[in-house]
Specification:
Length: 414
């Protein structure tokens, strides 16, 4: 991709009214664009990051047997009436509207009830189980406050997976497998060491739900962690009784600010009983489905990664989710230009993802933009270095510089 072809532009100015670092940087770099508080557009660079995060999650959900689908954003009142969750007193973040004929509709803030309703059409006997499905979809939530940039949207992308199992054993195994899949997701995103599976409220069947909380100053949650035992508990459920159950003492715990990047729920058969979600077992008897629900905040994760890895100069992307691997930049006259063009073609042909700054602007501006945009490697082609047939390579995350020949450059980039 040529920078001259990107329709987005970088800006030095902090967007007015935007207090979250993640949104400030992403807007200044042209990755996202703000519509209103909590509502953002993903421009081409931002979309590439989002798609790469999704792909990592997708691979891991597939690895535990998840099947991808996409539910509707428009939902029926009846779907939610069955559990009482259509009521604004029960769920206070609904966006609702009406059809022309007056029929109530809601914009999906979750798909739990909707998935069950849909699967009822397909599940008849024990032979149909297990069923594990997931999607990436926009959720709509009329959040009271939305000051955390893309970490708290009124419209945001969530990965939600649902498991339907035949018995407790199958259910527990899938729940366990999914925890491991989540750990692999956070490891691949470079967040493993700072992400804790945390005991939290919201357990319907078991006492707790499990949240995945990533240490982050800009997060809105507070948890207490025991590093040695790798145990974490949300402050919302922290009392002596629960601490006793987890076998930890208050004074051994460290208090940290975190962002909830995932939340998984083990419903047992509770939710299926509430919604009459059942199948015929091998004895011909009616049995309720063991149900689980597994969320990851995809756009929130992108915000957390920006918060944690960026520096005073701009964004710093981990290599596997960076929109491009290389920022290629040229300084100088005709020779540098023709050489950079050739190198751009060669790198692209070899399969590298390259963002090529082909603009005729001041070099200082190019360097500043390369740092704001945050690709992991910057390759500079200049008249001066070409005299020795060399290029400069700079790593974004640590500023490490090396001067390399053509072959050394290719070897280094892998
Ligand atoms: P929170 O406590 O932050 O409001 P939640 O517990 O209501 O989140 P869940 O219903 O558990 O959220 O949704 C699953 C995941 O979706 C969360 O773990 C979080 O990562 C993400 N998420 C929830 N609300 C938002 C939002 N408004 N913007 C972006 N991501 C969100
Ligand atoms: Mg939650």
């Amino acid at each position: 991709m040529r920078v001259s072809n990107l329709f987005t532009k970088t800006s030095k100015n902090i967007p007015s009214g935007e207090i979250a670092k993640n949104a400030q940087l992403l807007i200044r770099a042209g990755y996202i664009s703000k519509v209103m508080s909590g509502v953002y557009i993903y421009a081409p660079l931002g979309l590439r990051v989002l798609e790469k995060i999704k792909q990592i999650i997708r691979e891991e959900m597939n690895s535990v047997g998840g099947q991808e689908l996409i539910m509707s954003s428009i939902q029926k009142k009846e779907t939610w009436n069955i559990t009482g969750r259509w009521d604004d007193e029960v769920v206070d973040m609904w966006f609702k509207s009406k059809l022309k004929d007056g029929t109530d509709i809601g914009f999906a803030w979750s798909h739990e009830e909707a998935i069950i309703e849909m699967l009822k059409d397909f599940l008849a006997s024990y032979k149909d189980l297990p069923i594990n499905v997931y999607q990436f979809q926009t959720k709509f939530r009329n959040e009271l406050r939305s000051k955390s940039g893309i970490m708290r949207g009124r419209e945001f992308v969530m990965k939600d997976m649902y498991s339907c199992s035949i018995n407790q054993k199958q259910h527990d195994q899938f729940y366990k497998d999914t925890i491991e899949a989540y750990n692999r997701v956070f490891e691949r995103l470079g967040l493993k060491d700072d992400t804790y599976m945390t005991f939290a409220s919201g357990g319907a069947f078991t006492q707790f739900s499990h949240e995945f909380q990533t240490i982050c100053e800009a997060g809105e949650d507070t948890i207490y962690i025991h590093k040695g035992k790798n145990i974490a508990i949300n402050e919302d459920v922290m009392d002596d009784e629960n601490l006793g159950k987890l076998g930890v003492n208050r004074d051994e715990l460290e208090k940290v600010k975190t962002a909830e990047v995932g939340n998984i729920f083990n419903f047992g058969t509770k939710k299926s009983e509430d919604t009459d979600f059942s199948f015929t077992n091998s004895d011909g008897k009616k049995q309720f489905v063991y149900f689980g629900s597994y969320g990851i905040g995809v756009t929130r994760l992108m915000g957390v990664i920006v918060e944690k890895f960026s520096d005073e100069k701009g964004l710093v992307w981990p290599e596997n989710i960076s929109p491009y691997k290389i920022y290629l930049l040229r300084i100088g006259g005709d020779e540098a230009t023709s050489h950079a063009e050739k190198l751009y073609g060669e790198l692209t042909d070899k399969g590298f993802e390259v963002l090529y700054d082909d603009r005729d602007i001041h070099p200082g501006q190019k360097f500043a933009d390369s740092e704001l945009l945050g690709m992991p490697y910057r390759v500079t082609v200049s008249d001066r270095m070409l005299e020795n047939n060399q290029y400069e390579l700079v790593e974004r995350k640590n500023g490490q510089k090396s001067v390399l020949t053509h072959d050394e450059l290719l070897a280094k980039l892998g």
